[in-house]
Specification:
- The chain is mainly α.
- It contains 3 helices and no strands.
- The longest helix has 31 residues.
């Protein structure tokens, strides 16, 4: 099973994984919006950093779930 197949299955069957994925996609959009803001504002930059940390945390959770799924379904 490929990684992409595992992700597709997890998105269809694992509600928590799907929520992480949806939140991560939303964060990507918000970060993109903040990156376009000019001139830079310290408060917005702090918010952007917070969102980036949350997005990375979600990625780590998702990667762990994918790894576990692939190990169980070899």
């Amino acid at each position: 099973m490929t990684r992409e197949e595992a992700i597709k299955i997890l998105l269809e069957t694992d509600e928590e994984f799907r929520k992480w994925h949806e939140e991560r996609e939303e964060l990507k959009w918000k970060i993109h919006k903040l990156e376009k803001h000019y001139p830079p504002d310290p408060e917005l930059e702090a918010e952007e950093e917070r969102l980036k940390r949350r997005k990375l945390y979600l990625k780590d959770l998702m990667e762990q779930r994918i790894k576990e799924f692939l190990e169980k379904n070899q």
